[in-house]
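Holo prediction. Input below; ligand is magnesium ion.
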Amino acid sequence: MAKKITAFFCRECGHESAKWMGQCPACRAWNTFVEEKISPVTQKAKPVNALIQENGGITRLSEVIVTDEDRIHTGISELDRVLGGGIIRGGLCLVGGDPGIGKSTLLLQMCRNLANDNRKVLYVSGEESAMQIKMRADRLGGFRNDIDLLARNDLEGIIAVIEENRPEVVIIDSIQTMMSEASDSAAGSVSQVREATQSFLRVAKVYGISIFIIGHVTKEGVVAGPRVLEHMVDTVLYFEGDNQACYRILRAVKNRFGSTNEIGVFSMNSSGLEEVVNPSEYMLNGKPEKEPGSVVTCCMEGSRPILVEVQALVCQTNFSMPRRTAVGADYNRVNLLMAVMEKRMGIQFSGCDAYVNIAGGMKINEPSLDVAIVAALLSSYKNRSFTSKVLAFGETGLTGEVRAVSGAAQRVREAVKLGYDHIIMPLANFRTLPDEIKNDPQVCIFPVANIRDIGEVVQ
Ligand code: TYD
Ligand code: MG
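Structure of the complex:
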């Protein structure tokens, strides 16, 4: 028997080292090295393209035929959009996300649609038994055609089944449960995950099978983060959202066949994931009318403008240290904006608690949120509301100046589409707006150069 030796791998990026290190030299992450067994004789990897023909496999670029049919439509338009128009034949796609976010549900729904379209799909689950998958399928409903299930986790066996059955689309749920005989380390370790992905990559490219790999992301734990495989796959999608909030966002982080600016919005309900066709309307559901401390803003999720409500509550404090909290917005940013308001607008927040909340459970990191936070704080502080259809966006600097943000015209259009016709926006952006918006008699724009100007719009 060959002697087993060990090596150290970075859990974040998969960097290999002979000795333990505190910091990974490749990705600079701290304390991520784990020891794993490796075989001393590494197996020679099979070439990815096994169909090498004459001329060494050289083809001329002009002779490669690309047809639109190469895209398989999933029947879920939000997913198609994120994938760049549909599934690519022979593409390897990683779907990452926290446990319980809905990865298995989304892909099972996709399988159902593909099967109903008479496509051959195979759902491989190393986590759940066939019965558990059936229970989920019953919950989802609408299965007109059968799909093939495979509840096992031995990599070599699964590859053999795929090679024999040649399905069009394969789901691997999840990569962390796959075990290869070629590697001695535990399931979910860096070398296992990497080995399994390599094998699926080869099968995908050789037979033109589209493979979706599910990967869990854990904050701190034993399983290798899917970041290790990001560079191996064609497309990386992340499914994010709060477990409590019922909406979910599917985001393309890497896409060799499409834009990474696209997002898909879903909501989780009793019969699976439902597409949210109009996220702005969804986010503003239940917004109070004409209440102090509530302002609507428009943020950009990739190339998509989404309207959200920013709420602030400023009230007299009962503590010696006033409380400040921010939910959905950056806490430090809120503190900074309050300091700027104190200095530039002369507002005394020192005796006040302040709470800022992005309604609907979205987390927004964009600087364009600044003006809306300032407006909401001001409105709550003065206990006066804005005219009902006000929307505000723009970045604020330390001197109180309001700076331009990207995608201004798109934001204004989305606002107008949803009936928000009083728009507070940076002066610098206003100048570059197309004439058709500037001259629109329905839209009333308040260009602001400094946060002091915002007060004038309060009723
Ligand atoms: P799941 O897809 O198993 O998550 P993941 O594979 O990402 O770990 O399901 C996530 C959650 O969704 C689970 O807590 C139950 C819930 N859910 C519904 O609310 N409605 C449904 O129809 C289904 C199938 C699941
Ligand atoms: Mg799952």
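Residues 97, 99-105, 136, 139-140, 268, 270-272 surround thymidine-5'-diphosphate (ligand 1) (CB under 6 Å). That is the main takeaway for now.
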